[in-house]
UniProtKB/TrEMBL annotation:
Gene3D superfamilies linked to this entry: YVTN repeat-like/Quinoprotein amine dehydrogenase
Highest taxon of the lineage: Eukaryota
Protein name (record): Pleiotropic regulatory locus 1
WD repeats: 176-217, 218-259, 260-301
Region called Disordered, residue ranges: 71-114
Species this chain originates from: Artemisia annua (Sweet wormwood)
Biased composition (Polar residues): 71-111
GO biological process: mRNA splicing, via spliceosome
Recorded family membership: Belongs to the WD repeat PRL1/PRL2 family.
A GO-annotated cellular component: precatalytic spliceosome
Keyword entries, A-Z: Repeat, WD repeat
Matches recorded under InterPro entries: Prp46/PLRG1-like (IPR045241), WD40/YVTN_repeat-like_dom_sf (IPR015943), WD40_PAC1 (IPR020472), WD40_repeat_CS (IPR019775), WD40_repeat_dom_sf (IPR036322), WD40_rpt (IPR001680)
Amino acid sequence: MSTTTDSASAAATLPIEPQSIKKLSFKSIKRSLDLFSPNHSQLPPPDPLSKKIRINHKVAVEYDGIKSGANQTAKSSAGAPSSSTALVLSGTESSKKAGSQSDSAIMSVQPKNLGDGSLTGKSTAVVPAHMGSERNLSTAALMERIPSRWPRPEWHAPWKNYRIWETHSGKLKLTLTGHIEQVRGLAVSTRHTYMFSAGDDKLVKCWDLEQNKVIRSYHGHLSGVYCLALHPTIDVLLTGGRDSVCRVWDIRSKMQIHAFSGHDNTVCSVFTRATDPQVITGSHDSTIKLWDLRYGKTMATLTHHKKSVRALAKHPTEESFASASADNIKKFSLPRGEFLHNTLSQQKTIINAMTVNQEGVMATGGDNGSLWFWDWKSGHSFQQSQTIIQPGSLDSEAGIYALSYDITGSRLVTCEADKTIKMWKEDEYATPETHPVNFKPPKDIRRF
């Protein structure tokens, strides 16, 4: 009795080994591994009854309608012959009770002769006889494929570079000086002899091209001005910059009419039109805003892009415009800004500029020197070119910063990072036979 008491007291006086959470977790993991490691990666034994039920269900869904239709055809052929060429495929038992409205009919269609009459015979098409919520799955595999509704692109001749002007060796006619930092944008008026410029020095200047000097300056931006545009019918100038504001100016009085504030980042693209919405802006906050010029308020905000919207281009004749971002190029309708479709391929670079002419040829220029040409109607890229940097320039100076067509739309002018201005025109020797359209319509239409 005394030895038992002594051992119990000795056990009570022994210190308890401290256990950390990490050590306890490892012990628990070891116990779980010892319990379940023999059955690891082993599947449970198959159940023959469930397998049989599953296979019977698949066979019934796929072939039940065809088998019942064949049986019904055999019965009808054994009875009185009929002159009709329509065969009825019965559905499930519930559809038999419901009547003939829940069935599908296979009809033999006689095609029309195509000119020479070489194509004759009959083709089989499956015509659904009802539009209910329950679809006849037994004939889904026989249904005729619906042709793609994507518009087929028009043929355009490929473009080629035919002239390069270098700033240090080209024939210079005139130099206009006035900005103290780099110039970000230019706009030439079609109604006056004015040209407007904007730069990183927060200034917007109006140049008289007859006197070749600055006649007005517009002050108000808090940071660099990245884009500008002239209204087509009234004497109004729009500018956007790093202060996230698009400002509306009266050209003659130099007064600020509106300050469109709503973007969360740099306003880097803007264009105007004669009817509402008269102002459309794109920003680095990945949104596009449509503005009411009369009241200075937002009419709509488009949030389809996921990256910065650096370029906008309005079609010269259609009521639509395109926006370019690093994720994709998207097309919208006007005046509501409804999303139409994406382009069928991605340029996979930062797109700095884009433009479109009257024939529906859209050009986009990227930071890596890529110049892609697109068909406006379908969004198909029919030419993918790469600019060639001048000898002595770095590979990083291959970027294209500005694009513009001339008045006729037959010449394209590009301004590039290697201090060159290149001109492009269509290849006059190209034909649809020498340069066919390699177009494959998409399987589905992406809505975003």
